[in-house]
């Protein structure tokens, strides 16, 4: 059956076919779990789920319902459920700094559809994702003010530090998985006022191209995701790490993350070990955090925002990372280069001369050269950060007194130093989140 209906950047009618990966049919006003959760609006759609704003009619608060595609038997697609339930359970570190920057699961149940069972995660309500906020609500500047960017960066680091101490790897650190919370007063507003704030739902009817009935498992219409109003000053609120669909326990060593392959947005932040298929651990989050910090500060992506071949991804990393490609990956890299007709090189430009040190007669001089090259590599990344930040700043029309909304040269130098400690091709060379947070630069946040 040919089904049509949907919006750009939203789920489409074909996603609800009666098959092994179908979405669960939802209509506005539906009440789930014996009437407890009333669906009010759609908040978004991802590779594996739809996300809805709902009213918990028992607890009299607004919540988020994340409803997955039909659950896949096996280990990988159960990770999110396992991780969220682990985080919801009492934990000795739950009250430590950082736990308030992790989204909480409030409830979990299963929904039976015609194609199988769907996980439904009830999560605390959060507001707009940081990437969408920057895109839609920064008056065309497309980056956060310095004081906000620094606070958001620190809160994201605190959340990840707490997560790692719990033995959980997030697996998908990026601005699209970082969201501002909503003020507590939201929960006391009426359903009408709540939906008005999100905008009247837009719907697109689902129709059958061959005139056949669409069937009870298909939605009668697709709902467009809500947009948060500009007058809602979300950037004054704290942020939380969200979306644990790629998370796993640090006791595991998976070789891949997403069953269906990473999205374009996830690809730009993924670590080199993911590309090379190396067993994964918490250090993939360190790389992704470095990439995200660059974006939070500058408003631009460290790597190109487009779908890229593995060879293109690694080539970009080699041009920006301050260290050399680990020897264990070089044979794979040669094969990628041969397949894509790339010129082969195994080092970032700043470290390209490191091979010459092998021929130097004096070990001490060789060591000095290596240290100098490593410093040059760090400087290359820092220079790139400074160039992106200050060139864009010069294009802004500054109002009187607005200079305080921008980082100084010394701030950018420090941020570049911290990012360069995370953007290392060799996972073992990346510093921990706790080490980044220990820097005194964060003390005034």
UniProtKB/TrEMBL annotation:
Sequence ranges assigned to domain Protein kinase in this UniProt record: 37-442
One Pfam family it belongs to: Pkinase
Domain of life: Eukaryota
Record bears the keyword Oxidoreductase: no
Residues that bind ATP: 66
Keyword Transferase: yes
Keywords per UniProt: ATP-binding, Kinase, Nucleotide-binding, Serine/threonine-protein kinase, Transferase
Region listing for Disordered, in residue ranges: 76-98
Protein name listed in UniProt: Kinase-like domain-containing protein
UniProt source species: Phyllosticta capitalensis
């Amino acid at each position: 059956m040919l089904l049509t209906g949907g919006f750009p950047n939203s789920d489409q009618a074909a996603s609800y076919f009666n098959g092994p990966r179908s979405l669960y049919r939802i209509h506005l006003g539906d009440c789930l779990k014996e009437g407890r959760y009333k669906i009010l609006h759609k908040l978004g759609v991802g590779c594996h789920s739809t996300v809805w704003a709902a009213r918990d009619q028992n607890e009299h608060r607004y919540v988020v319902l994340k409803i997955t595609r039909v659950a896949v038997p096996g280990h990988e697609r159960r990770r999110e459920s396992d991780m969220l339930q682990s985080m919801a359970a009492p934990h000795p570190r739950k009250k430590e700094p950082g736990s308030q920057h992790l989204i909480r699961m409030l409830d979990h149940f299963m929904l039976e559809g015609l194609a199988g069972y769907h996980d439904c995660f009830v999560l605390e309500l959060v507001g707009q994702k940081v990437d969408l906020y920057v895109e839609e609500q920064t008056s065309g500047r497309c980056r956060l003010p310095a004081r906000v960017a620094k606070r958001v960066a620190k809160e994201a680091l605190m959340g990840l530090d707490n997560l790692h101490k719990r033995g959980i790897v997030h697996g998908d650190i990026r601005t699209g998985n970082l969201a501002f919370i909503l003020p507590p007063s939201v929960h006391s507003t009426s359903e009408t006022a709540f939906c008005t704030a999100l905008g009247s739902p837009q719907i697109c009817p689902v129709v059958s191209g061959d005139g056949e009935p669409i069937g009870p498992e298909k939605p009668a219409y697709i709902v467009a995701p809500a947009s948060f109003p500009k007058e809602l000053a979300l950037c004054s609120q704290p942020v939380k790490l969200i979306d644990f669909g790629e998370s796993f326990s640090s006791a595991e060593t998976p070789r891949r993350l997403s069953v269906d392959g990473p999205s374009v947005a996830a690809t730009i932040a993924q670590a080199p070990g993911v590309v090379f298929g190396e067993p994964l651990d918490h250090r993939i989050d360190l790389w992704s955090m470095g990439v995200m910090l660059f974006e939070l500060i500058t408003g631009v992506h460290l790597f190109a925002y487009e779908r890229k071949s593995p060879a293109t991804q690694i080539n970009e990393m080699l041009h920006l990372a301050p260290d050399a490609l680990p020897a264990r990956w070089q044979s794979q890299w040669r094969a990628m280069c041969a397949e894509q007709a790339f010129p082969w090189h195994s080092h970032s430009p700043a470290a390209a001369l490191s091979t010459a040190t092998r021929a130097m007669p004096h070990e001490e001089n060789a060591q000095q050269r290596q240290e100098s090259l490593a410093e040059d590599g760090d400087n290359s990344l820092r220079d790139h950060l400074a160039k992106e930040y200050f060139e864009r700043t010069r294009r802004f029309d500054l109002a009187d007194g607005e200079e305080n909304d921008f980082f100084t040269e010394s701030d950018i130098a420090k941020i570049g130093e911290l990012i360069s400690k995370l953007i290392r091709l060799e996972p073992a060379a990346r510093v921990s989140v706790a080490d980044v947070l220990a820097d005194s630069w964060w003390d005034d946040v």
